[in-house]
Amino acid sequence: MGQQNMSVDEMRGIWRYLDDAGIDWLSAWDHLYEAPPAGGVQPHFEAVATLAALACDTTNARLGCLVFYVGYRNPGLLARAAVTIDHLSGGRFELGLGGGWHEWEAEAFGYDFPGVGTRLDMLEEATELITSLLTPGENGEIRRTDFSGEHYRAVNASMLPEPVGGNLPIWIGGVGEKRTLRMAAKYADGWNAAYIDAGEFGRLGGVLDDWCEKGEREPSSIERSINLVFAMGSDAAGAKRIESEMRTQWGDMFERVSGGALLGTPDQATEQIMAYAEQGADMVNIALRAPFDEEALQAYVDVVMPAVRAATS
């Protein structure tokens, strides 16, 4: 869920409904402004606080953020927040990390937003540091972390309490073949891609497999997910209307993201999801941006989810 254009009460009602309906995973995103960018004209809530409320309001779904931009928070602080949310949720939280993209919000709030190479350097340092911080001690001893990088550091740092289940799963988000997927193979429990078509998802999954093999890691040990814009209609007329609205919302960015959008009727959406499953996706995240069609969301829960589960069981 993009935590924008909704009141807190509206958000809480939606995620409680989805948790009760059997959704496997619930997320918030890490933005300070709305997405797609509109210059900060739409109401928007911060991610860590939103996720804490989500953890307390739900009981079933795994929870996460796909992904946090590592430039907004010191890695130690982010690790501490993740463990706190993990305990609030009873051990259901998973931490996603990425190199960011929303330069407009970063500039607005005074954050440095360097070039992509530097941001990937930051991502790798942060991931290595957070992985160490979240690794439990052995034989009841307190684990200590020392780290000295170009962007981040830690001195004899501990993480108590530890995550509820011991290790807290870490996800890497992004589609960069040379660095992001290599990092996912080295550090991550899960890899997430956003708004790409099924064929490209499968191709990148093969690149991830290659990086795993080079690092002598079993490729199947990494869970794989895809974010899709939720643009499905409850029927043909609704699907046509929603696609038109999406074109208006995204403007020039529509062609780039439409290949990774859930479009059409419930039956067509089911076929699209199955195409990702055939390309190795373990999970599909639908990105809800308010206002969205409530009848379409109901059809997703009542029609699409059961059909996909039946086909993949």
Please tag this protein with its features:
alpha/beta; TIM Barrel; 8-stranded parallel β-sheet; two-stranded antiparallel sheet; 11 helices; 10 strands; 45% helix; globular
Q: What does the model show?
A:
By secondary structure, this protein is of the alpha/beta class. The protein folds into 2 domains: 1-173, Alpha-Beta Barrel (TIM Barrel), CATH 3.20.20; 178-313, TIM Barrel (Alpha-Beta Barrel). The chain has helices at 8-21, 47-57, 75-88, 103-108, 116-134, 180-187, 198-214, 236-250, 254-258, 266-278, 294-312; strands at 25-28, 62-69, 93-98, 145-148, 153-157, 170-173, 190-194, 223-232, 261-264, 283-287. Strands 1, 2, 3, 6, 7, 8, 9 and 10 form an 8-stranded parallel β-sheet that branches. The chain has a two-stranded antiparallel sheet with strand order 4-5. Helix 3 crosses helix 5 (116-134), helix 6 packs across helix 7 (198-214) and helix 7 (198-214) runs parallel beside helix 10 (266-278). The longest helix is centred in the middle third of the chain and has 19 residues, at 116-134. It starts with 7 loop residues before the first helix and ends with a helix. The mean pLDDT is 96.
